[in-house]
Amino acid sequence: MYRKETEGWSKHYDFILLDMICLQTAFILSYAFSGYGWYPYANLLYRNMAVFIELADVIVIVLFGTFKGVLKRGHYQNFLITIRHAVITGALAVLYLFLIQKGQNYSRLAFVTMICFYAAITYVIREMWKRALRKQMVEGRGRSLLIVTTEEAAEIVIGNIKKNNYARYKIVGVAIIDRNLTGRKIDEVEVVAGEKTAAEYVCQGWVDEVLVVTHGTVPYPSELIDQLLETGVTVHLNLAKISNVPGKRQLIEKIGTYTVLTTSINYASSGQLFLKRLMDILGGVVGCMFTGIIFLFVAPIIYISSPGPIFFSQERVGKNGKKFRMYKFRSMYMDAEERKVELMKENKMEDGKMFKLDFDPRVIGNTILPDGTKKTGIGNFIRKTSLDEFPQFFNVLKGDMSIVGTRPPLADEVNLYERHHRVRLAIKPGITGMWQVSGRSDITDFEEVVRLDREYIAGWNIGLDIKILLKTVLVVLRMDGSV
Question: What is the pLDDT of residue 14?
Answer without folding.
Answer: 66
